[in-house]
Amino acid sequence: MDQRKDATEATRAAQARLAASLPSETGEDMANATRGFLGTIPDADVPGAWSQKPFAFLNGERPDTVNPGLWRQGRLNLQHGLFEVTKGVYQVRGFDLSNITFIEGDKGYVVIDPLISAEPAAAALKLMRGHRGEKPVTGVIYTHSHVDHYGGVRGVISQADIEAGMHIVAPEGFLREAVSENVLAGNAMGRRATYMYGATLPKDPKGHVDAGLGKTVSMGSVSLVPPTISIRETGERLTLDGVDIVFQVTPDTEAPAEMNFFFPQFGALCMAENCTCQLHNLYTPRGAQVRDARAWSHYIDEASAMFAGDTDVLFASHHWPRWGSGEAARFLRQQRDLYKYIHDQTLRLANHGLTPTEIAEQIALPPSLAAEWHTRGYYGTLNHNAKAVYQRYLGWFDGNPANLHRLPPVEAGQRYVEVAGGADALLAKARDAYGRGEYRWVAELVNHLVFAQPSNTDARALQADALEQMGYQAESGPWRAFYLTGAQELRNPRPASETPRQGAAGQLRALPADALLDSFSVRLNGEKAGAVGDLALTLAFSDTGERFAVSVENAVLHHRAGEGGPAATLTRPVLIGLVIGETTLEKALADGAVSGEGAVVLGQLLPLLDRFDFWFEIVAP
């Protein structure tokens, strides 16, 4: 039975107020989103990985369960297929959260940002070849270190291509940052990403509609192939397959390692993910390092100064292009000022003594920026971006000593319930607030009861109802998805598991040995390691010829190149299998996959490494 509710009167009123505040509709965005269309495949359907078919409801009338602004963005992101950006530059859009771009070179195609997973990337390449010729991929460019811009690379190049030295270009620091964001904190980030992108929600008017940045994330095979060329300096030039490229490095913008670049022969400027048709995230709710709004604005300004005068078309790794030098320059100026305004005004208010929450409630865009569609919070929001700026400069603490050492959620919840006069009294007050449309207050109040009494079905139901209405009202795709996924999990709790339900290990398998060992350090259980004491061994990787001294000291896992105790010889895949439980040390020894005196120490180390449960609880203890 579908437990989801209709939009309440309060939500319908909120949608009407929002609709009345939107910029004027000129049709320009839809014209740009469909310009240059060459063809597609039905519903952009890639079996098992991606399809636009479930979103066909967006072709109808907007229901009250969807914010008017997000509905509009969802219709724009519904467009899919191969598009000519300009002669020699083509994009496949709507086959994943991100765009894949093809540059026609002398002998084949240079691929920019091969999507999240291999299957949609391969389908996009097939579509490109079907319209522009059966040519090889002659190079790959990663604009930055987020998985939706490199994870599908094996859909466009083969292992033979890699072994033959395929040029893969990325900004300096790409691999380090890709590992840091997607491996070191990968389990937590991945789980939270299921909320942010509505991965478990039905695709319908009461569920997932759009992510703002794109439709949603694909579900195919993800991998990481390290770059072979790193771009270190702005102004650096490179020729790939006869195509000249001028690079601009933009560290600490939308990603810690990112770059824009210009194609002089095409008059085409790629702004990576630094300029998209929305307000982006200075802090992403899935979790990541807070981004530097000041640097972001600076690099957009620098790109404008370097390239705008020669730009005939501006394109990015999400959404649709902008044509014309004047329009490109105007877009860059407005995007530049969008991020600097949030930065400057947040710090102005912080210097007046306002807290992050107070700033987020007060800050508003100036009329000149608020009048643009591409500054709206379909993905990032003014509210949480202001908090991000505060966090970057002043940290998580707002200065009030009452917030310096707060009680954890379960203990605090129990005491709030007691103060409220018990669960029934708290629920009665919360139901009254729900009837008045005060959903934010309901969610804050009932959250205490859910954490105090997670099996209280009345509390879970009311909390779900409140989050649901907040989701319906949200203009931000991620906010909607977070609210609705929270409601879904409150109503349908996932059964507990006796063993960790581990996430995919595809990116682990692609890591070089040094980065792999670094990722294992965050698995070391400090309490267990402290009880065991010091350990030391040499890991000899027979597949790469590398040897690493690995040690545990003071409950910390260290590694460095060289010797460090008795040696255990094995391959990287075997070590990964041992750590995540795909095989056992006893079996690996019997099969000859592990050998050497260091196997004894390895046997002591492996039980100290945690296996993470991907499906940990978020809206309940």
Description:
This protein has 621 residues and is of the alpha/beta class. Helix content is 40%, strand content 13%. Strands 1-2-3-4-5-6-7-8 form an eight-stranded mixed sheet, with helices on one face. Strand 12 (268-270), helix 8 and strand 13 (313-315) form a beta-alpha-beta unit. Helix 1 runs parallel beside helix 16, helix 6 (174-184) packs across helix 7 (186-196) and helix 9 crosses helix 12. The two termini are 26 Å apart. The model has no long low-confidence stretch (mean pLDDT 97).
Please state the structural category. alpha/beta
Mean pLDDT across residues: 97
Termini separation comes to 26 Å
- List the quaternary state of the chains: single chain
How many helix segments? Answer: 23
Tell me the β content: 5-15%
Give the total of beta strands: 18
